[in-house]
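User: Could you walk me through two proteins back to back? I'd like the raw sequence and the structure tokens for each, with a short line separating them so I can tell where one ends and the next begins.

Assistant: Of course. Protein one, sequence then structure:
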Amino acid sequence: MRVALLSPVFWPEVRRGTERFARELGDGLLARGHEPRLITSHPGLRPSTTTEDGLPVVRVPRLPDGRLERRMFEQHLGHVPFADAALRAGDDEIAHALHATSALAAGRWKARTGRPVVFSGMGLPDRASLASRRLRLKTIAGALHTADAVVALSRAAADGFARWLGVEARVIPAGVDLAAFVPNVAARADEPTILCAAAATEPRKRVPLLVEAFGRVRRERPTARLVLSRPRDGIPFDAPGIEWRDLDDRAALAAACREAHVAALPSTGEAFGLVLVEALACGTPVVGTDDGAIPEVVGDDEHIGRLFARDDPEALARALLEALELIGDRTTPARCRTRAEEFSIDRTVDAYVRLYDELAS
């Protein structure tokens, strides 16, 4: 099946969860004999088409959006007309949008061809996020009207679609590459090491709250380290025991997951929490906020992690200290790995293939 994946940005320009998901979904489709291509954008003036590890990637121009960004309009509106043109130039059977603005371009294509559109909502709809930017609600409403199927990453995200947008979304979790993220007990650091791979400058990720809690952890575990993902535009803050690393590369992230004793994600409004699943796949227990989809990832097994109250640094510090003790149980890595296997990328790709077949028929 010929599938056009649409994401407004892609790596190496941006390497976040959505971009990794697009790459791994494309890889999974290729492995199953399908013909995916990725339509994205770049700041250049001309379109380009490359084949990157087997996946055709079409990068269309992106209109300057600095003024729109300053006025807090919905992001990535400037790539819609060019993404539409790239769809017109192909012969895709399915258009799969990973962002609401991409779904607008897919809607124009659907109106001409009558072919189906899938919209994967990569976030968790709530009142604050829907009202945070101009035209966001209108853009998402247009995407939902266009789509033949709406997909949420978790039950929590699906509940958000139902409550705030009146749409029933089917749940297909984002998957972890179990071949790339594997345990290695020998790689575990000697010092108690906490990893947070979230974007440190994104307010919703609440990395400063983690830093505050880490200071309390150091009172009991003076040699503890906190490994954070280094932003491209410089280190935003520093404190004793903090290490900044480039974790954009998947191999570097996997190595950091194996080295850590605990992986933490203190954010709110998470639609899934892929970085926690990647840590679990490496046999590393996790700590997360009792909010959004994070409780769905951690589950009820206290051998693989802890949850904490969303605004309490003392509760986060206690959760980290308890989770640091888990790695001393020899059964913990296997339990973590078993949990991650429930969210394998193979399961995710198979679920999307079934959805594509359903819509195409």
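----
Protein two, same layout:
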Amino acid sequence: MDRAGAFAAAMTMSLGFPVEVASSPAAAAAEAQILVTTTPSTQPLVTSDSLHPGLHVTAIGSDTEHKRELDADVLRVADLVVCDHRGQSERLGELRGAIADGFDPAGVIELGDVIAGRVPGRPSADATTVCDLTGTGAQDTAIATLAVARCVETGVGTRVEV
């Protein structure tokens, strides 16, 4: 068994629900409501063809000038593009590569503004959204804490003890 298959089998046993290996990023996206990319890729792995209504993509692997996980068209066709810190995302994140490919970042908003309620987040349940996270530790911790609290309040999600 390959490493991905072995990992999926171990996680299935550990978590008590099925964990499967996708054949490609597009195959993973087709089955997902949330797609999180965490790779060291230097070439886009996710294209606009992989997107579907309601999909949320969080790209966290692009955190240096040479990494890239999303094709510029992913940001172009998304209904909402959010980044953790605009200047940092334009220098290190997915915005850097997309801007180099002609993407206009005028409509990109910062995650802190969404969380603080200064600007609206997801416009509808079927909106395709993208979040470019380059890594701001304090903000990451605050976001995770808020997400867990909201899931507990609304009774959604699956608690996984690790």
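The mean pLDDT is 92.

Let me know if you want the two compared in more detail.
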